[in-house]
Amino acid sequence: MRVILREDLPNLGEAGDVVDVKLGYARNYLIPNKLALEATVGNLKTFRDIARGLESRSEKERADSEELAGKLAHVVLTITVEVGEEEQLYGSVTNQMIVDVLAEKGFQIERRQVLLKTPIKELGMFDVPIHLHRDVEPTVRVVVERAVEEEEEEGERVEE
């Protein structure tokens, strides 16, 4: 079935593209969720007019994304985690943890925008891409550090 995409969809196309998809995918997901229209002659004419508005909206979103990317490029996130005897993390650093630290610094990023392929399971420094717009994908430096235990802190105070 041929449909006109109303929004950018990864692995399918950008807003305004006419693509062929399976009938069930179009009828059960794309059309009910208002992500696409059936590609009829009337809808094609109507969508050409709508496409002009989408282009201007997309340019504004891109400009906003580039501004945010400039700010994010200089951000270093420090996440402290508990570590076992052999530098093994208890758990892992996930997308949500990165979003929470970004929120503390005043950045409103959604969890799905953090492109962490696999959770971080070791100490160190990692570059994590953030998907802001289809053309804008800055990276944020994430430093995973060992959490200082209370016993170690008390021992250091006594020595001083």
Fold and architecture overview:
With 160 residues, the chain is an alpha+beta fold. The chain folds into two domains: 2-62, Ribosomal Protein L9, domain 1, CATH 3.40.5.10; 73-159, Ribosomal Protein L9, domain 2 (Roll), CATH 3.10.430. It is 38% helix and 19% strand. The strands form two sheets. Strands 2-1-3 form a three-stranded antiparallel β-sheet, with helices on one face. It has a three-stranded mixed β-sheet with strand order 4-6-5, covered by helices on one side. The protein is elongated. The mean pLDDT is 84.
SSE diagram, text form:
Layout: E1 2-5, E2 18-20, H1 23-30, E3 36-38, H2 41-72, E4 76-81, H3 95-104, E5 124-129, E6 139-146, H4 150-159
Parallel strand pairs: 4-6
Antiparallel strand pairs: 1-2, 1-3, 5-6
Structure summarized in a few sentences:
The chain has 160 residues and is of the alpha+beta class.
Q: Could you name the key traits of this structure?
A:
Ribosomal Protein L9, domain 1; 38% helix; alpha+beta; 160 residues; 2 domains; 3-stranded antiparallel β-sheet; Ribosomal Protein L9, domain 2; 3-stranded mixed β-sheet; 4 helices
- Large-scale geometry: elongated
Order of strands in the sheet with most strands:
2-1-3
Q: What's the architecture of the largest domain, going by CATH? A: Roll
The overall strand count is 6
Unreliable stretches: none
Instruction: Specify the helix fraction band.
Output: 25-40%
As for the CATH topology of the largest domain, it is Ribosomal Protein L9, domain 2
Question: How would you name the CATH homologous superfamily of the largest domain?
Answer: Ribosomal protein L9, C-terminal domain
Mean pLDDT: 84
H-E string: EEHEHEHEEH
CATH class of the largest domain: Alpha Beta
Q: Kindly estimate the percentage of residues that lie in beta strands according to DSSP.
A: 15-25%
- The total tally of domains equals 2
Please, how many helices? 4
Q: What structural category do the secondary elements indicate?
A: alpha+beta
